[in-house]
Input
Amino acid sequence: MGIVDGKTAIVTGSGRGIGRAVAELMCEQGAAVVVNDLDQGVADETVAAISAGGGKAVAAVGSVTDSSFPAALVSTAIDAFGGFDIIVNNAGYTNDGFIHKMSDEQWQSMLECHLTAPFRIMREAGKYWRDQAKQEAAAGEMRSRKIVNVSSTTGVAGNAGQVNYAAGKAGIVGMTKSLAKEWGRYNVNVNAVAYGFIETRLTAAKDQVERAQVDGNEVTLGIPEKIRDAAIRTIPLGRPGSPRDAAGPVVFLSSSLADYVNGVVLLVTGGSYM
Output
């Protein structure tokens, strides 16, 4: 028996990295999952891997920054599983630069991805959850629902060269706390995790930095090995976190074990930020 048995989770950005680890662990712990990614092939691969392990998953391919996508995402969960109980707003990327060189488009790209997209998804979810919660309250059978938003230590402590990303990740903390107060009466727990150094393709060691396109923006993949090594030396546990390390706290906050945890930002950093 898993800690999220019988639940359905929507996990954005879950074709790769942390999001995929969250989706896989959710399924291992008994949930059905809506897997979201920009890339159809990557999303299908994750769904196939989950299905091969006996889990239940469907893909919802698209960009969370598309204003029409939240409705499609929620509809996918309802059509496939009859509803949804958990939302993990994980999709994200970085678009770094020092402020004196940063364009308006570069600034806005991080707000769109890390603030506006989760706002729209949670607003769309509210159309269903509020009515459901009112009906359940009238019947004396309130059901617990969960939102876990992904922030970063950059949103808590700042980071040079990431003023736009820091603004987005700090903003999601304020949004988390505000919605925790607003939706507590509907028995919805809204929390966040703030990650430190986690092993993903964005933090892989590279002799030469590689780039990819996300939503029309250039994304840096990997960091120079010297900078990476210096960052790892600041972690008391002596290593970066794995995607699986990152997934555990999300699944905990999504479970009944966290029914009285609300409006919290859980630092998942190996001790590098205290």
In short: The two ends are 34 Å apart (CA to CA). The chain has a mean pLDDT of 95. The chain has one domain: 8-198+239-268. DSSP finds eight helices and eleven strands in the chain.
